[in-house]
Design a protein that fits this description.
nine-stranded mixed beta sheet; 15% helix
């Protein structure tokens, strides 16, 4: 594996202790982790609601050493794209700022290769002030173009997760991590591999199939759903899970809602169904 220039690695466990007495510490996050939170919401080293309510749960996991959050934006009728695949942009400025704020708070952001090809995203922090996370692309069959924006050399770590025998050709600085799984790499294996790379807070950003697989596998601690005030009527659904026959089999999650301008954030707590990945919990 090859390391990119100026690698941005997460802070060591000793630097992550959740106490407000740390220099620049706010409710357990250091100053860098709170990057992107508007200064108007700060007061005497504390955060006004709703920022504490939204982001404090992302400080550390309760199941193991990881905190894994999924995020997608959707219409009122739970669409993430039109029937023709157009998705830019369902969410407005407030929803996009929330997504970029999440990026600034995590160590790594993960997308599937389908999203990387269809949307060609940068996965950087631009709508708020803060550091861009490492970029991770799940590419089991080596489909990712060499000129994809997520692979741009900008001082941030870039990782491609691919199959054991898949042929990939990427320039120096791109880290290639080979995992078993054929056409689909198991979410648990992905998270275990990322934990081994030193990543602790992980954002699963897209697309819909990737987030759905992590949700179905019990590999999300939280799910942030940002609902835009539009109705599309037909198109790609936000979540696709195996069918159930009875409502008592449905996944139920404690949930809090927050207004983001004219959009609504649903913060879903999925820790009750999150599987343990065997990552040793570090002392704090």
């Amino acid at each position: 594996m090859k390391s990119g220039p100026k690698a941005r690695r997460p802070a060591k466990a000793a630097d992550r202790r959740p106490v407000s007495s740390r220099a620049g510490g706010v409710d357990g996050f250091d100053a860098r982790s709170w990057a992107g939170i508007p200064a108007a919401f700060r007061s005497s080293g504390a955060l006004f609601s709703p920022w504490t309510e939204i982001f404090a749960p992302l400080w550390e996991g309760t199941v193991d050493d990881l905190m894994v959050v999924g995020q997608f934006g959707q219409s009122i009728d739970a669409r993430v794209a039109t029937a023709t695949g157009q998705s830019h942009y369902i969410n407005g400025a407030a929803g996009l700022a929330h997504l970029h704020r999440l990026r600034a708070l995590v160590d790594a952001v993960v997308i599937g290769v389908g999203t990387a090809i269809a949307d060609d995203p940068q996965l950087t922090v631009r709508h708020v002030t803060g550091p861009s996370p490492a970029r991770v692309i799940i590419d089991p069959n080596g489909r990712l173009p060499a000129r994809a924006k997520v692979l741009a050399a900008d001082g941030v770590r870039r990782l491609v997760l691919t199959g054991k025998r898949t042929r990939v050709r990427h320039s120096d600085g791109i880290e290639v991590v080979r995992l078993a799984g054929g056409g689909h790499i198991a979410p648990a294996d992905i998270l275990t591999a990322l934990a081994a790379q030193g990543f602790r807070r992980i954002l699963i950003e897209g697309g819909a199939d990737t987030i759905s697989r992590f949700l179905a596998a019990g590999c999300l601690d939280r799910l942030h759903v940002v609902i835009a005030p539009i109705i599309i009527g037909a198109g790609r659904s936000s979540v696709t899970l195996p069918p159930i026959t009875r409502l008592d089999q449905a996944l139920r999650a404690p949930m809090r809602s927050h207004l983001l301008g004219d959009e609504v954030l649903l913060d879903c707590d999925l820790t009750a169904q999150r599987i343990a990945l065997g990552v040793a919990k570090k002392s704090t």
